[in-house]
Amino acid sequence: MQEQLAQINIDDTVLVARCRAGDSAAAERLIIKYQDRIFNVILKMCQNRDDAAELTQDTFVRFIENVASFRGGSSLYTWLFRIAVNLTLNHCKRRSKFGMRSLDTVSGGGSGWEEARTQLKGYLADEDGRDPALLAQNREVGRIVLESLSQLDDDHRAVLVLRDMEGMAYAEIAETLELELGTVKSRLSRARASLRDILRSVL
Predict the structure, then answer these.
(1) Spatial separation of the C-alpha atoms in residues 63 and 84, rounded to whole Å
(2) What are phi and psi of 66, to 5 degrees?
(3) Residues 55 and 117 in one domain
(4) Does residue 82 fall inside a structural domain?
(5) pLDDT digit string, tens, across residues 34-57
(6) How large is the greatest C-alpha to C-alpha distance in the chain, in angstroms?
(7) Can you say whether the dihedral through the CA atoms of 89, 36, 28, 74 is positive or negative?
(8) What's the chain's Rg over C-alpha atoms?
(9) Global pTM?
(10) Which domain holds residue 68?
(11) In which element (H, E) is residue 41 found?
């Protein structure tokens, strides 16, 4: 059965139905399909690989435990992201020093720093510029942006990661975070403004 599943493209709803029937191969296929995306989102939010790995595992444990209650009101992708984001936000709130990392390590050093500094200044000079995710084409810039994200509060970081780094539509973010569409847009605007302020302080 596992080999058969691996050889064909099966819709999520079919795999979920098989999961409910106790098909472990179907569950494994869904986990393989989404685990990297879930891990990357969590990592950007919590900034710790070990924590991200554990939270990713917890997300799929919750998925297996609650798959019988999934009725398809949203896509499986959105449902998994909602579990992951909620687990991560709760985890972050338990960490008393979360979001208080020093940015000293990203300023004034490294062979790519001057190039990164120039690129970031160009981004900051354009208030209507492209999304922060596009800056990550430069490794040094990407590192600075990711470390700067840790300075945002949890709610702002969540919406910025989902929109600007994962490319989720506003409606998907609203569904994932269980927010009004207008709240998502205003929170994203504030998150971007805060990120710009943090980046300016680094430069």
Answers:
(1) 10
(2) -115, 10
(3) no
(4) yes
(5) 999 999 999 888 888 899 999 999
(6) 57
(7) positive
(8) 19
(9) 0.72
(10) 2-94
(11) helix 24-46
